[in-house]
Amino acid sequence: MERILVSACLLGSRVRYDGGAKPMDDELMARWRAEGRVVAFCPETAGGLPVPRPPAEIVGGDGAAVLDGTARVRTAAGEDLTEQFLRGAGRALEVARESGVRVALLKESSPSCGSLRIHDGGFAGTRVSGHGVTTALLRRAGIQVFDEHRIREAAACLRGLEPPARGLP
Fold first, then answer.
1. How do residues 7-16 score in pLDDT, each as one tens digit?
2. Is residue 168 part of a domain?
3. Contact, 10 vs 22, CB < 8 A?
4. How far apart are CA 71 and CA 61, in angstroms?
5. Which domain holds residue 73?
6. Which 3 state secondary structure label does DSSP give 135?
7. Which strand (E) or helix (H) includes residue 103?
8. Tell me: the pLDDT tens digits for 44-65?
9. Could you give the number of structural domains in the chain?
10. Residue 167 belongs to a domain
């Protein structure tokens, strides 16, 4: 049975920067949880960041640029959190590998988990195309990453990874 790495905030854990969660009320998620497929994870808390914490954004690029050392993750006050974000992304990859995960469903717009869009680093609420640090690392390792709005696509991907059902002879 294929497992799926899911942002802990999407499962109701209060791990977001503001101390909140973004729980999903979705039949697929409920089924995956009941089947034991879900591997809950928050890369930001795993990287050592507290809850709550100041908001952070990637400055100078996206998650791939952070991995390559050409962009940084900072708070609006300028505090550099790059090492914590890299540590959390690394831990996410370790957990995914340990659990045999090949698909992830992560929180959109996050500097860790965004898969299509992230904030632009100006702390004005502007979003741009790009992905977070954890998403970039997981994708480099061959893990398919989807956001919470593309849960049906994630489900199709999981189905495609499952071996065909075998009937009795």
1. 999 999 999 9
2. no
3. yes
4. 5
5. 4-161
6. helix
7. strand 103-106
8. 999 999 999 999 999 999 999 9
9. 1
10. no
**Does residue 78 belong to any structural domain of this protein?**
yes
Residues 6 or more apart whose CB falls under 8 angstroms from that of 53 comprise 17, 44
Half-sphere exposure of 23 (CA within 13 A, CB side): 9
What's at 82, amino acid-wise?
T
User: Which of these, 49, 47, 50, lies nearest to 137 by C-alpha position?
Assistant: 47
**Cα(41)–Cα(120) distance, integer angstroms:** 24
Please calculate the CA angle 51-132-90 and round it to the nearest 5 degrees: 75
Q: Distance (Å, rounded) from C-alpha 152 to C-alpha 76?
A: 35
Residue 134 lies in a domain: yes
Pairing of strands 4-7, 103-106: parallel
